[in-house]
Design goal:
It is built from twelve helices and 13 strands. The protein is an alpha+beta fold and about 425 residues long. Strands 4-5-6-1-7-13-12-8-9 form a nine-stranded mixed sheet, sandwiched between helices. It has a two-stranded antiparallel ribbon with strand order 2-3. Strands 10-11 form a two-stranded antiparallel sheet.
Length: about 425
């Protein structure tokens, strides 16, 4: 059987930098921070008061029935918006497309936390009869994939992956695998998250994972800098359309890049901390290279997981050096767009693969802002402060999640 190649033909993004791909990408290139004081809840009693919020967002236009926007959780609203934009960008919803061969895999690290909080408060204060009959379908993490397929009639494989902050990359990677195996011709794949909420903020804050640089929100996310003190929580969605190459070519689709490799592994080490030597993350990147049939020297850019945590940034640096050897310090360019968006948790990989695709398209590497005093243990080229014009042919995007879940995606120009 002829090998089935997989390409990306559509991109949709909602992020703290903007409610579409164009605005988000322009913000990344400009080195603009989307982080500010949280407006969606009263943070008076919270140690952390900053986040990367999606602002001025109306989900109704992205639903077949606008009323459904009120019957779905915020993470689903964000997922629907990014999916609608990606689908329109790709043209995959045309009548001549066999919709039974189009799958959906849009995951979430946490799912409908806002729904759970709100309805539980009703239960406690007003009793069980006041709980919404929509509470279960609103809360569950697979419902975004379900509603996308219902609204567009996509009858292919449909599922949801939950692997914390690796969710988007795993979703895109497993969709890639299904297309290569012949189970679908195209996939709507990515992730969404909407957890800037009392429970989300308190939980991450109390485990000392978040930055407390409340007085300087735009400078709080500072990957690889000596002054980093934790990540900044963000929200949003990133979705791409994956398509079998010949299928895309036959219909004249615009192709952003080929998804050439996918790697995944487990640290098998600790509940929340990465392996201290980056062993699992390195194996993950090695697998992506192997699937792509590429040598380490052929990778031009790595969009790092780069969360701005004291331990995580060092471990990822070690992993990159482990995988790329001499190339890590001689030619490889690395940056963390989380310095501008914050950490979008289960949506992070979807937004970051979009950044990689645009970097390939325009020959511009988005910067790592706030990198003012580089940690000696983080000794790679992280494109500090300002974007860099650099024609590239390939890019690798890393996402690592609590539980030791690792996922890497490798895209290259055709």
């Amino acid at each position: 059987m002829t090998e089935r190649r997989v390409v990306i033909t559509g991109i949709g993004v909602v992020s703290p930098l903007g409610n579409d791909l164009k605005t988000t990408w322009e913000g990344l290139k400009a080195g603009r921070s989307g982080i500010g004081e949280i407006q969606s809840l009263d943070t008076t009693d919270y140690q952390v008061k900053i986040g990367g919020e999606v602002r001025d967002f109306d989900p109704a236009p992205y639903f077949k029935n606008p009323k459904d926007a009120r019957r779905t959780d915020r993470y689903t609203n964000l997922a629907m918006a990014a999916s609608a934009m990606a689908i329109e960008d790709s043209g995959i919803n045309q009548p001549e497309i066999d919709h039974s061969r189009v799958g959906v895999m849009v995951g979430s690290g946490i799912g409908g936390l806002g729904t759970l909080e709100r309805e539980h408060a009703k239960l406690i204060k007003r009793g069980p009869s006041k709980v919404s009959p929509f509470v279960i379908p609103m809360m569950i993490s697979n419902i975004a994939s379900g509603i996308i397929s219902i609204d567009y009639g996509f009858g292919g494989p449909n599922m949801s992956i939950v692997t914390a902050c690796a969710t988007s990359n795993h979703s895109i990677g497993e969709a890639w695998r299904m297309i290569k195996f012949g189970d679908a011709e195209a996939f709507v794949a990515g992730g969404a998250e909407g957890t800037i909420l009392p429970m989300g903020l308190a939980g991450f804050s109390n485990m000392k994972a978040l930055s407390t640089r409340n007085e300087e929100p735009t400078r709080a996310s500072r990957p690889f800098d000596t002054g980093r003190d934790g990540f900044v929580m963000g929200e949003g969605a990133g979705v791409v359309i994956l398509e079998e190459y010949e299928h895309a070519k036959k219909r004249g689709a615009t192709i952003y890049a080929e998804l050439a490799g996918y790697g995944l592994s487990a640290d098998a080490y600790h509940l929340t901390s990465p392996h201290p030597e980056g062993e699992g993350a390195s194996r993950c990147m090695d697998m992506a290279l192997k699937h792509a049939g590429m040598n380490p020297e052929e990778v031009d850019y790595v969009n790092a997981h780069g969360t701005s945590t004291p331990l995580g940034d060092i471990c990822e640096t070690k992993a990159v050096k482990r995988t790329f050897g001499d190339h890590a310090k001689n030619g490889l360019v690395v940056s963390s767009t989380k310095s501008m968006t914050g950490h979008l948790l289960g949506a992070a990989g979807g937004v970051e693969i979009a950044a990689c695709l645009m970097a390939l398209q325009e020959g511009v590497i988005p910067p790592t802002i706030n990198l003012e005093d580089q940690d000696p243990e983080c000794d790679l080229d992280y494109v500090p402060q300002t974007a860099r014009e650099l024609p590239i042919k390939s890019a690798l995007s890393n996402s690592f999640g609590f539980g030791g879940h690792n996922a890497s995606l490798l895209v290259r120009s055709l």
